[in-house]
What we know:
Layout: E1 2-6, H1 13-24, E2 27-30, H2 31-44, H3 52-61, E3 64-65, E4 72-73, E5 76-77, H4 85-94, H5 98-115, E6 118-122, H6 125-129, E7 135-140, H7 143-156, H8 163-179, E8 192-195, H9 201-213
Parallel strand pairs: 1-6, 1-7, 2-6, 7-8
Antiparallel strand pairs: 3-4, 4-5
Helix pairs in contact: 1-9, 2-4, 2-5, 3-5, 4-8, 7-8
Amino acid sequence: xxxxxxxxxxxxxxxxxxxxxxxxxxxxxxxxxxxxxxxxxxxxxxxxxxxxxxxxxxxxxxxxxxxxxxxxxxxxxxxxxxxxxxxxxxxxxxxxxxxxxxxxxxxxxxxxxxxxxxxxxxxxxxxxxxxxxxxxxxxxxxxxxxxxxxxxxxxxxxxxxxxxxxxxxxxxxxxxxxxxxxxxxxxxxxxxxxxxxxxxxxxxxxxxxxxxxx
Length: 214
Ligand code: DC
C-alpha cells in the first residue's frame, strides 16, 4: 500500500504524513528532506548551483540514509542543518536540476521495495514518483497559515527568523516549485484535495485514515 501526500511548503505534509504512518504502522519517507540533503551537500562543497550536470553527479554519488527520523548524507547527520534558511533558499534551484530529480526519484521508488507499506510525501509523488499510488492526497492551506506554521516549526527547533523572511522564502519557493519544467508541484487528477487551514492535525489524519479503510 502506498499513500502519496503532496502539497506546498507549510501545508502540514510532514506532521500529517508522519502521524499517519505511525498510526498505520507503515514506513515514512520525507522526499523534501532528500532534496534538502543534496542541497546542503552542494552548499557545503561550495558548488556552483547553476551547474546542473555537477548537481546531478553529486546526487548520484551521495549516500542518503533516512532511517530513525534522522537524515544522513555520506555518513554526516544533517537532520538539523537541512532545515536552516540557507538550505531553504537554495533547495528549489537544486531540485529543479533534471539529473538530481532523476536520481532521487529512482531512490524513492527503491525505498518502496525496502519498506513495503509506505506513506511518502513531497511535491510530485502522486504525479511522477508513484502515479499508481493506492491513495493520493493533495494538502493545501492559506498562505498565512502556511507561513505561520513554517515560522513555528523553525522556532521550535531553536532557529530565530523574522516572519517577513519566511513569507518571502515561501512565496519564492512556491513560485519556483510550481513553474519548473521538470515535475512541477501539481495535484494529480485522482488526488483528494484537503485544505488544512482550519483543521486540526488529528482531523486531517482521521479523514485520510477513513480513505484507507474503504
Ligand atoms: O517539503 P520541503 O519543503 O522540505 O521540500 C523542500 C524542497 O524540495 C521544495 O521546495 C521543493 C523540493 N521538493 C521537490 O522538488 N520534490 C519533492 N518530491 C519534494 C521536495
